[in-house]
Structure to design on (276 residues):
């Protein structure tokens, strides 16, 4: 088994979201994979095993297995390119089949993934009130031009778009209360967003469900959010950027591209670097 520590969505080799990547001849037991993820203590560790013409892939946070993780998939793409060269790699997840493309350019690795299909539904008034209470927001802090919503692009998240960037920058919450809320609704993360322009968003993702306060760069949530913009708002820009991780010292840049066709996959791409 080969084990790497990589950073996905880094910029010029710096920052990014760290992920453990293990390429396996055979998967360890579920208990062993969970133990490894706990010991590594990144927001996600991904395990991949060759299976027929694809790679069978599983993702573990320090606390639980998740069905899909964007940044760990980008890191896995980088690892596969490091091991096997540039290419398109088919991935068999727990509930979906996707593809990651990876290549080396100018001494740096890059990867892109095609997300599972997206879907969304409006957040309930109760959900909005509970999130406001958790983060100490007032209802007038919310930008209802992009309404709070339950979003999905391989995993379930909820998104709240806020009027002021400072509301996102100053994100604070009680960890145990946040964990209980995420478990109650099955959210992998709570995504807080400030719209900087139609093509740029400033983001933080609370991730108590995974055993850490915050995920520095969340490709799955980025895919779900961009699908929501496209599917519900006919978003005019189909090539957007999400800036994340700045507030935890891991500045990250997630690029998303998508077609006009509703519910279809989102392409998420970024740089992959050795973790430092």
């Amino acid at each position: 088994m080969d084990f790497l520590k990589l950073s996905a969505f880094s910029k010029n080799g710096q920052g990014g979201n760290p992920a453990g990547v293990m390429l396996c001849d055979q998967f360890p037991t579920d208990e062993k994979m969970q133990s490894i993820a706990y010991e590594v203590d990144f927001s996600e560790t991904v395990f991949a095993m060759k299976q027929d013409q694809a790679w069978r892939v599983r993702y573990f946070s320090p606390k639980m297995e998740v069905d899909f993780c964007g940044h760990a998939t980008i890191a896995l793409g980088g690892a596969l390119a490091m091991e096997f060269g540039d290419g398109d790699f088919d991935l068999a997840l727990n509930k979906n089949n996707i593809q990651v493309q990876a290549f080396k350019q100018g001494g740096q690795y890059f990867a892109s993934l095609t997300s599972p299909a997206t879907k969304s539904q409006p957040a309930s008034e109760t959900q909005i009130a509970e999130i406001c209470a958790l983060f100490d927001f007032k209802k007038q802090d919310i930008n209802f031009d992009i309404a709070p919503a339950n979003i999905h692009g391989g995993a379930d998240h909820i998104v709240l778009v806020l009027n002021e960037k400072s509301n996102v920058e100053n994100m604070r919450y009680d960890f145990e209360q946040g964990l209980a809320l995420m478990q109650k609704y099955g959210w992998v993360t709570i995504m807080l967003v400030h719209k900087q322009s139609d093509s740029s968003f400033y983001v933080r993702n609370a991730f108590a469900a995974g055993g850490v306060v915050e995920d520095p760069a969340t490709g799955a949530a980025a895919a779900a959010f961009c699908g929501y913009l496209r599917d519900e708002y006919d978003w005019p820009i189909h090539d957007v950027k999400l800036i994340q991780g700045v507030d935890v010292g891991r500045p990250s840049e997630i690029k998303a591209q998508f077609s006009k066709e509703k519910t279809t996959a989102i392409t998420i791409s970024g740089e992959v670097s050795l973790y430092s």
Remarks:
- The chain has a mean pLDDT of 96.
- Residues 119-271 form a domain with the Diaminopimelate Epimerase; Chain A, domain 1 fold (CATH 3.10.310.10).
